Amino acid sequence: MRLTLLGSGDARQVPVYNCHCPACVRARSEPRYRRGPCSALIECGEQRWLIDAGLTDLTERFAPHSLSGILQTHYHADHAQGLLHLRWGHGLQIPVHGPDDPQGFADLYKHPGILDFSQPFSAFEQRQLGALQVTALPLNHSKLTYGYLLQAWDKQGLTKRLAYLTDTVGVPADSSALLRQAPLDLLVLDCSMPPQAVAPRNHNDLTRALEVIAQLKPAHSVLTHIGHSLDAWLIEHPAALPADVSLAYDGMTLDLS
């Protein structure tokens, strides 16, 4: 099981338009610090699932029939805008599994094109997709949002468990309880901003992200959905992250095989 973080930024992305903070200045001069819309690719056996479709160049990145489908966490624009172009493809059908959101995004449900929205997840539903087992976990966000517990078995028959949790503030008790039923090998977690005195409304700050990590106790954690303010704060506080916590970057590959 391998996860590639295709994008690691928040809705503003990095650099932010017309921002001259240290993080945005650095990202303009050094492309490796740029952050695109938060999304990932999970590969397991013959399965290749895109997690969120916020990238606007999906038709260029993925050849026809190269994706098994899309696991949509929710339908905010920065996570779903790539579907607007992808739907107008021809001669194939792409399943999109996500929350049962009556509004969806724009007119996607009315004009789905090649996208198949007919099998939305229900809360805590578990699906077997080839060698990959997927469980939908409700999160704390302004729009109905799921994180995903991704499980597979290695050649020795051992379970590998990966949790992908974005966008959220903390983790709901029922979702946390399910995640703590067995050890997590990897946690990929929303962390959009530096420590805040008051809990943010829609996304973790570093304080809340570290609290979630302490609750779930994964072997390793990667912070994603990162905003320019967190990048700028970490430039000034380079030793702020614990040893078992990493900062995501676009193109980062995490191999659990």
Could you name the key traits of this structure?
257 residues, alpha/beta, 7-stranded mixed β-sheet, 18% helix
Strand content: 25-35%
The tally of helices reads 7
Question: How much helicity do the residues have?
Answer: 10-25%
Overall average pLDDT: 97
H/E series: EHEEHEHHEEEEEEHEHEHEE
The poorly predicted ranges are none
**Structural category:** alpha/beta
The side-by-side strand order for the widest beta sheet comes to: 6-5-4-3-2-1-14
Assembly status: single chain
What coarse outline follows from CA principal-axis ratios? globular
Largest sheet: 7 strands, mixed
Beta-strand segment tally? 14
Radius of gyration: 17 Å
How far the N terminus sits from the C terminus, by CA atoms, comes to 5 Å
Characterization of this structure:
The structure is a single chain. The chain is 18% helix and 26% strand. It has seven helices and 14 strands. It has helices at residues 22-29, 58-61, 77-80, 83-86, 173-179, 206-216, 228-236; strands spanning 2-7, 39-44, 47-51, 69-71, 94-97, 115-116, 126-129, 132-138, 146-153, 159-165, 186-190, 221-224, 245-247, 252-255. It has a seven-stranded mixed sheet with strand order 6-5-4-3-2-1-14, with no helix packed on it. A seven-stranded mixed sheet has the order 7-8-9-10-11-12-13, covered by helices on one side. The longest helix has 11 residues, at 206-216.
